[in-house]
């Protein structure tokens, strides 16, 4: 038995770092990984952002994260204007096209996560689908440039009833280009975060745990920089030089990102794919169903406990029906049970982890429904307001979304440099506050954002309908600012929470799940818009959001509805966060007693028709 334990420990130590370099050779901690490698993925634009990471790194390490965000944000955030003015779709249809497009991006992240973890690895998935996204940007630019690929010019505000909507070949080219961008971006996004996080070895270098937390904040900083440039410079180019030039600049940004991420090839530590990630999960459910009539052994804290530890995973008390998948039945023969009938405790516990994070994931869907409004209706709000900043300069409505990012490029470093160390001293948590606490704070703020949006829209509508006054676009600032803070807390908290789950070889897929939350949120937004219109419409007038004129619509009431839904969602999250905290780990005594044990299954010896539970000394 002692010899067996020694073997298991030796194997476990050998497997602590199975990463490889670009040639497939074992990675060297002195040459591969760390902040320097992660910077290629993040895309950091200045020495100040590099000092944010506490590492010396060349300023040319402007990588994929920020460049890809620049390209996709410039398209997505101003797409509704292009759909209305150039493609002549109605406001509600344009809003749904945008939300469906963004939702599809994030849903396809699951495909990217699966291909990465199972077959390609993060790096090659990024390269392959990065070129797919680039081709979509190029085709969008061509479609926007050629008049024969668009409907005849028409003013939707004055002649909306007679404007011809894009159909047939025009619509086909547009949607093919749009969804090439969606496919590429969806598969690239989860792998950017996962590939950067893979550069930190938490198992052999404990100091990397704090650096990983910093990395996630830095990833959001890079995201904010990319968004800010997209919503100011690129949107200004789209407004003044045309959407064709704007889409072309997005293509150039994506091309630059691909060039830079490839330039970091020699410095990456890469996690090799592990084969199908779904097969081990399916095996646990099948084995548990096949052995559903077996007696489930009890895991006792004292005395002769059933030792059910494998690697660093200890059996937990949640979802006990799955434990039957690791019951080994001995009937006197030496026949080895199929992996579809017998699973290791590690395998079972990883499935439990996957199930337990689903409620947390689900609670962020409504949060992303709120985000969808800021990219659709809030842009239209800005279009109905006074956009003049000086006598000669008008703020493009799509650039309103840059407001939170201007604040966040200062706030995120301050959060990491000052709040995290202070909170760490109080809580003892390496991230200052736990990911679950961070998510909860963000969800509460999203409710406040919708309240601010509802109050502002009522003021804007009353002013326009009553005195005819058009209020300044700066009145819309609070809802964007509050939601920016909310997104910083929720998005980063969710990414950190998912990545740190003990699901080996599934990090890219877990990152994809965080993006999938965006997808469901944007799809839910489309459903809510259609449902609200249907419920609130009557024979004499349309619904709250059925008109192309916001002065006739009741967007304020729709925002109040979202505020109520967001608050109820926050209360629901509090319940599931508490449940997860209480059920996420085994008691410390079990953990301590299980350390060093290498046994993978419960052993049941079968005598005739009786099944007897046999503890192993």
From TrEMBL:
Key words, A-Z: Membrane, Transmembrane, Transmembrane helix
GO terms of molecular function: transmembrane transporter activity
UniProt xrefs under InterPro entries: MFS_trans_sf (IPR036259), POT_fam (IPR000109)
Membrane-crossing segments per the record: 33-53, 65-85, 97-115, 121-142, 218-239, 245-268, 353-374, 394-415, 476-499, 520-537, 557-576
GO cellular component: membrane
Entries under Gene3D superfamilies matching the protein: MFS general substrate transporter like domains
Mode of membrane association: Multi-pass membrane protein
Compositional bias annotation for Basic and acidic residues: 1-24
Record localization: Membrane
Region listing for Disordered, in residue ranges: 1-30
Signal peptide feature range: none
Family: Belongs to the major facilitator superfamily. Proton-dependent oligopeptide transporter (POT/PTR) (TC 2.A.17) family.
Protein name: Protein NRT1/PTR FAMILY 4.3-like
Organism whose genome encodes this protein: Gossypium australe
């Amino acid at each position: 038995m002692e010899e067996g334990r020694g073997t298991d420990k030796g194997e476990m130590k050998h497997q602590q770092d199975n990463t490889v370099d670009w040639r497939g050779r074992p990675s060297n901690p002195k040459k591969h990984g760390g902040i320097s490698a992660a910077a290629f993925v993040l895309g950091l634009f200045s020495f100040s952002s590099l000092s944010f990471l506490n590492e010396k790194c060349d300023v040319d390490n402007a990588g994929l994260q920020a460049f890809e965000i620049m390209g996709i944000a410039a398209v997505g955030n101003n797409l509704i204007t292009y759909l209305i003015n150039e493609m002549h779709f109605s406001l509600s249809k344009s809003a749904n096209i945008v939300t469906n497009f963004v939702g599809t991006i994030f849903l396809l992240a699951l495909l990217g996560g699966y291909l990465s973890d199972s077959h390609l690895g993060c790096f090659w998935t990024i390269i392959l689908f990065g070129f797919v996204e680039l081709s979509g940007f190029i085709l969008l630019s061509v479609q926007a440039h050629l008049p024969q690929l668009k409907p005849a010019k028409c003013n939707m505000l004055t002649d909306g009833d007679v404007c011809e909507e894009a159909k047939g070949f025009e619509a086909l080219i547009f949607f093919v280009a749009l969804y090439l961008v969606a496919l590429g971006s969806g598969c690239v996004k989860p792998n950017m975060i996962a590939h950067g996080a893979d550069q930190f070895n938490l198992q052999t270098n404990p100091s990397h745990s704090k650096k990983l937390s910093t990395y996630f904040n830095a990833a959001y900083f890079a995201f904010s920089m990319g968004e800010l440039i997209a919503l100011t410079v690129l949107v200004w180019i789209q407004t003044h030089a045309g959407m064709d030039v704007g889409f072309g600049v997005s293509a150039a940004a994506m091309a630059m990102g691909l060039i830079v991420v490839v330039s970091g090839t020699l410095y990456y530590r890469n996690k090799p794919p592990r084969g199908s990630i779904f097969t081990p999960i399916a095996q646990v459910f099948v084995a548990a169903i096949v052995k559903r009539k077996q007696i489930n052994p009890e895991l006792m804290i004292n005395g002769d406990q059933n030792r059910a530890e494998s690697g660093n995973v200890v059996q937990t008390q949640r979802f006990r029906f799955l434990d039957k998948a690791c019951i080994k039945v001995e009937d006197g023969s030496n026949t080895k049970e199929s992996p579809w009938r017998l699973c290791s405790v590690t395998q079972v516990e990883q499935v439990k982890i996957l199930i337990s994070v689903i409620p947390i994931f689900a609670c962020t869907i409504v949060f992303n429904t709120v985000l969808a409004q800021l990219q659709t209706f809030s842009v239209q709000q800005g279009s109905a307001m006074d956009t003049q900043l000086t006598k000669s300069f008008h703020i493009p409505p799509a650039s309103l979304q840059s407001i939170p990012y201007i604040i966040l490029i200062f706030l995120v470093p301050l959060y990491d440099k000052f709040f995290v160390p202070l909170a760490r001293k109080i809580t003892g948590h390496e991230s200052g506050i736990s990911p679950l606490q961070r998510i909860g704070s963000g969800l509460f703020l999203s409710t406040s954002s919708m309240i601010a949006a509802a109050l502002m829209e009522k003021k804007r509508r009353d002013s326009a309908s009553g005195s005819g006054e058009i209020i300044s676009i700066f009145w819309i600032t609070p809802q964007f600012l509050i939601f920016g803070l909310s997104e910083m807390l929720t998005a980063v908290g969710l990414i950190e929470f998912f990545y740190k789950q003990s699901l080996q070889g599934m990090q890219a897929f877990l990152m994809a799940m965080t993006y999938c939350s965006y997808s469901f949120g944007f799809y839910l937004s489309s459903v809510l818009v259609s449902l609200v219109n249907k419920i609130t419409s009557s024979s004499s007038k349309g619904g709250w959001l059925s008109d192309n004129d916001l002065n006739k619509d009741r967007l304020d009431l729709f925002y109040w509805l979202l505020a109520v839904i967001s608050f109820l969602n926050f209360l629901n999250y509090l319940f599931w966060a508490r449940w997860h905290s209480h059920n996420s780990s085994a008691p410390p005594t079990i953990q301590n007693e299980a350390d060093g044990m290498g046994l993978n299954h419960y052993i049941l010896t079968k005598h005739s028709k009786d099944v007897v539970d046999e503890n192993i000394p």
